[in-house]
Every structure is written in structure tokens, then in C-alpha cells.
Amino acid sequence: MSVPILEATPTPEPMITRQTTWRLLMNNRLAAAGFYVIALVVLIALLAPLLPLHDPDVTDPADRLLPVFSESHILGTDHLGRDVLARLVWGTRISLLVGISAALMAAFFGSLIGLVAGYAGGRTDNLIMRGIDMLMAFPYILLALAIVAVLGPGLLNALYAIAVVNIPFFARNVRGIALGLSHREFVDAARLSGKSHTAIVATEILPNVLPVIVITMSTTVGWMILETAGLSFLGLGAQPPQADLGSMLGQGRALLFTAPMISVVPGVMVFLIVMSINLLGDGVRDALDPRLRAGALTRPMPVTRIDRENVPAPDEMARASALAVTELETSFETAGGREPAVKGVSFSLRKGECLGLVGESGSGKSVTALSVLGLVASPPGVITGGAVTIEGRDVFSLRETEIGSLRGGKVAYIFQDPLTTLHPLFTVGEQVAEAIRAHQPVGRAQAQAKAVDLLRTVRIPDPEQRASAYPHELSGGQRQRVGIAMALANEPDIIIADEPTTALDVTVQAEILRLLQVLRQERGLALLFITHDFGVVAEICDRVAVMRRGEIVEAGDTAAVLGNPQHPYTKRLIACVPKPGQGRRFLEAIRRLPAEEAAGGSGS
Ligand SMILES: Nc1ncnc2c1ncn2[C@@H]1O[C@H](COP(=O)(O)OP(=O)(O)OP(=O)(O)O)[C@@H](O)[C@H]1O
């Protein structure tokens, strides 16, 4: 008899508030501080002609080297009696103008070069990129000096020099991405539709590359302002009497001991500008790249972060089971707060039993499976409640090393796409042997021999020879068998198989299911089988639990649930299994699913 666990009425899903890039940027306190500082500096620089300032170039020998807070010269005067505040504001205006113009020029030409090289590929790419390599082979400041030496000193020439030496950064970044994109299916589709190369680059490639250009620009513009100041400091940029921050620093250097404020003031301004632009640039990069926000590039913790509010004590049944999951809750930290993905899931699995976890895409099956051994990446994953009991012990109370020894030992996983889990540079035999050696103190040769045995067990033909094949040399079904061999390497008690047959065609799927069935019966394995296919459940599972939006809505013996489903969602899922001669009913069931989803909100 199947047990409907939840009421049929769908609970409305909490609204996932997608934050705008601007809000995300302002939530980052350092980036917001950078933004306010640079906005203030830019505003003052823009308003320079309107501000009641002295003429920055008018000298007044009678008022030489006045200290700060002198009457009518708040920041004092320089060695020629010029007002330091006026020179600072006008100098900042020029430095910003030159730095930002150089960044725009470098971004434009560098991106153009990168786009052409990446899209064209082949000889054009080779030729362009070798030229770029030659530019990069020189220390950039020497190159800038050489360019200004050839063109002659002056602000405009300094701008050209800075732009030229920065072109390679943009070209390299953009070329790498454009090269990858130019082989993607949507670009092929655009080519087949008859679009011209220019149109493809402009409408298919460029929009995908734009965030990278913006990110590269935001992180290099501060650097370019600094380089401009460097050239002016050396007397190759702004020429007297014109002031920019670099030339002010250069002039102040001679008076560093007698009148330090003359160099300290432009120095502090350069520091403020570069720091604020860099902080803002980092913030822009984080806000534009959702993977960074989710913490994808930070090193994941060895075990999912555990922050449990409720810790249920294992009951008698949990202790007697091979695996028991009790009120498991797993969430993801997002910019908008914690999003629950698994909401109080409970099930148990006896030795030799197969439990099917069924549900549509995004219902939380994989997150449940990964949570069992704390394999959900943290950040962003957090286990917020519940317990997982294996051999009577609460997994989440174990030490990291103990959980580590369970993984691939007592509990093994089989994933959907073995091509992504197998290492492309090692033979499958080496990889199975490595799985053995990770848990057993055996020598290399012994592990290799056992690996061949395991490949034979999972019915890979000619296992001695196939053991020295690389993953790409095997078929999808054979790779999945290798995945199963690795899972069996340490004689596990529990196997968690996450859609192991979804990527395979029906005949290979049937063979793999048969193999799992035989292994289960021969070895008494407890099998948690994740799928969205009731047909597969009917074939292999003793019991089934139906998941929807992070909750189990119905659970029971497979025959009972299939024969007499109680929950409307289960009924619809079962109706989705195509049967010969029932085409129309099948299509109607499929058509109804999204409609009801729209009414209730989607779980994914
Ligand atoms: N890294 C992540 N960050 C935020 N949310 C995530 C992350 N990984 C998964 N989720 C969310 O968790 C929920 C459950 O995902 P899960 O992968 O468990 O679904 P599933 O039922 O296994 O689907 P499928 O059959 O497509 O694999 C989804 O709503 C998904 O958006």
C-alpha cells in the first residue's frame, strides 16, 4: 500500500528574488565604497571649470611653498607659487581622461584583434597571436618608454603608448573565449542560416564576450591611470605648465624633504583613484559572474557545511537500516538568502533493497543523494537540518576523515555522465586501480589485476585489453560500466546511483539495469536509484519515493505506488511513461505537467 505523505494542494513556492547587478554591486561594501570615492573624484574633476579655483598654471613667486591651510590656498602652493588644490583638481581631470581613454582604446582594439583571431582560427589566429606574443615579450613599461621615445614626449603620445602596451591583455582574454565560442552549436546554426561572418561576430560572439571585456576593463583602468602617471613622472607625459598627477609627483620629488605635501597630495589622490577603481572593478567582476557570487571558484570545503537547527536522534528503524535519511534539509546560500532545495526528506534503505527516488528535473533528487555523504559543494550548499544514519552512526557528527573513508568505501556513487567523472588522461584500468588503492593497502600490480577482474564483473568485453583504453576510446555504455566497476572497487554496502542510465540508449540502459540488479542480488547491496523514469523504477526498485520541490510527496512499495498512486503528481508522472497504443494519453499527461507547474510555481 502506498502512503501519500503530503496533501495534494501544491504549496506556493517562495518567490526567488533575482537581484539586479546594481543591487548586487552595492551589497558588496568594498565595491560600494570604491564606487562612491571614484564617483566623487570624477564629479569634482568634471566640475573643475565651474569650481572657484585659482588658475592652475599661474605662477606667483611671492607666494612660493605656502603650507597647507594657508589663506586662499587650502593645500598650499608649489615651488612656483601655483595653487596645489587647483593643480590637483585639474591634474586629476587630465589623469582620469588619459587613463580612461587609454583603457577604452586598448579595450576596443584589443577586443577587435581577439575577436578576429578567435573567430577566424587557423593561420590568421596564429599570425595575429604571434604578433601579440612579441608585444608581450617586452617588459610593458620599457615598451611604453620606447614608444614615447619614438613619438616624442607629450600626453597624447603617452596615451597611445599606454593603450598599445595594454592591447595584448584584451586580445588574449577575448581571443580565448571567442575561439571556444566559434565551435559552439549556436554559432554553427548561425553560419548555416547564411549570416555573414561580420554579423555572426557582432550578434553571436560579441554579446558573449562583452562581460569579459567589461571585467578586464574595470580591473585594468586603474592600472592604466597609474602607468600614465608613471610616464608623466618621468617627464614623458604631461609637459609644463600642464599638470597631471604624475608630473605633480615628479616635481614634488625634488622638494620631498622641504615641502613633502607637494608630492603627498597627488600621491594620495593616485592611491585613492587606483584603490577605488580596483575595488569597484572587483565588485563588477563578482556581480557579472554568477559563479563567483555562488562561491564556485572558491575552494569547496571537504564536507558540505553543516549548520543544523534540528538534529533528530536515530530511532530503532534508522539503526537497523543500511542507510536512513531523517528530515534532511539542504539549502543553497544565494545573494537573496538561503534557498532550500531539500525540505525535510526522510527514507530508509535495508540491506539488499533498491529504493527508487523519482521526480522531475530540479525536484532535489541529486542534492538529496549528494547530501548523504556531505558532497554538496560548500559554498553555496549548507545542510540545515536532519540526520543521515549509516550503520547506526550519524554521518554529520563524524570527523571529516571518517566521512572521507565512507566515500568510495562503504558507500559508492555512480553518476549520470561518466565522461565528466573519469579523468581523460589516465586509462580506465589505472583509474579503477586507483579507486582500489585509495581504500585498500595493496600494491600497484595487485590493484591493476583486481581492476581487470572488476571490469570483467561489469561485463566489459576483453577486460585485459580494455583496461589500457582511455575513457574517450570507450562507448557510453562501457564508460558507465567502468563507473560501476569503480563503485564496486571496495565492496560497498550501499550504492547511490544518480540517473546512471539517462544518457544511454534503451538497449544499453536495459543491460546496465540488468547488471545492477544482478550485482545487488549477488552482493546484497543496498541501492538508492535516482531517476525521473517510472519505467526504470518498475524494472529495478522494490520501493519508491516520489519527490517534488524538495519534498517526498508519496512513498511505498513499487507495485502499490504504480498500481494505485495516491498523489496527483505521482499519477501524472506515471501517466508520462509511454505505453504502446496510448500515444494520446501520454501526450496529454506531458502537456498538463507544465500547465500545472505554472500554476504552482516551479521547483527548479
Ligand atoms: N549550486 C547550486 N546553487 C543553487 N541552487 C542549486 C545548486 N545546485 C542545485 N540547486 C538547486 O537545487 C534544486 C534541486 O536540484 P537537483 O540537482 O537536486 O535536482 P534533480 O531533481 O536532481 O534534477 P535533475 O533530474 O535535473 O538532475 C534545484 O532547484 C536547483 O536549482
TrEMBL record:
Topology in membrane: Peripheral membrane protein; Multi-pass membrane protein
Pfam families recorded: ABC_tran, BPD_transp_1, oligo_HPY, OppC_N
Name listed for the protein in its UniProt record: ABC transporter related protein
Predominant location: membrane
Span of domain ABC transporter: 326-574
Record's subcellular location: Cell inner membrane; Cell membrane
Record has Transport as a keyword: yes
One GO BP: transmembrane transport
Gene Ontology molecular function: ATP binding; ATP hydrolysis activity
ABC transmembrane type-1 domain sequence ranges: 92-281
Top-level lineage group: Bacteria
Classification via SUPFAM superfamilies: MetI-like (SSF161098), P-loop containing nucleoside triphosphate hydrolases (SSF52540)
Gene Ontology CC, one term: plasma membrane
Keywords: ATP-binding, Cell membrane, Membrane, Nucleotide-binding, Transmembrane, Transmembrane helix, Transport
Transport recorded as keyword: yes
PANTHER family from the UniProt entry: DIPEPTIDE TRANSPORT ATP-BINDING PROTEIN DPPD, OLIGOPEPTIDE TRANSPORT ATP-BINDING PROTEIN APPD
